[in-house]
Design goal:
The protein is α+β, with helices and mostly antiparallel strands and about 120 residues long. The protein has two helices and eight strands. Strands 1, 2, 3, 4, 5, 6, 7 and 8 form an eight-stranded antiparallel sheet that branches.
């Protein structure tokens, strides 16, 4: 069994060093998101408080955002990618290339599992 770290610093590091290696793997309602880093083989698990749809630079709505993210995750998971990680603000943003929709999540707990 590998190491488990309760910090967003590892996700921040992966995003800073090799952002294209982060793959969105799962979204389980109501609050769990899984991200896998192909480069370092780390698995990042996020427990989210809120999910907001974003359009351009403006936050749009929390209503229906988790349902929309669930739809993207189940129908075209490979199109969902990480666009921003801010551990200081406890925020991780995603974008669905296929739907052209952005999501901002407020994270209450970061966990990283390293092999």
């Amino acid at each position: 069994m590998g190491n488990v770290f309760q910090s967003g610093a590892f996700l921040q590091q992966c995003f800073s060093v090799h952002p294209l290696s982060l793959n969105f793997k799962l979204f389980t309602l109501p609050d769990t998101i899984g991200i896998f880093c192909m480069n370092c083989k780390s698995r990042h698990r996020l427990t989210v408080e809120t999910i907001t749809r974003i359009i351009g630079d403006a936050e749009c709505s929390e209503e229906g955002a988790s349902t929309k993210l669930e739809t993207c995750a189940s129908h075209h998971q490979e199109a969902v990618h990480v666009t921003e990680v801010s551990v200081d603000r406890d925020i991780v943003q995603f974008r669905c290339r296929e739907c052209r929709v952005g999501f901002q999540t407020t994270v209450s707990r970061f966990e990283t599992y390293q092999p």
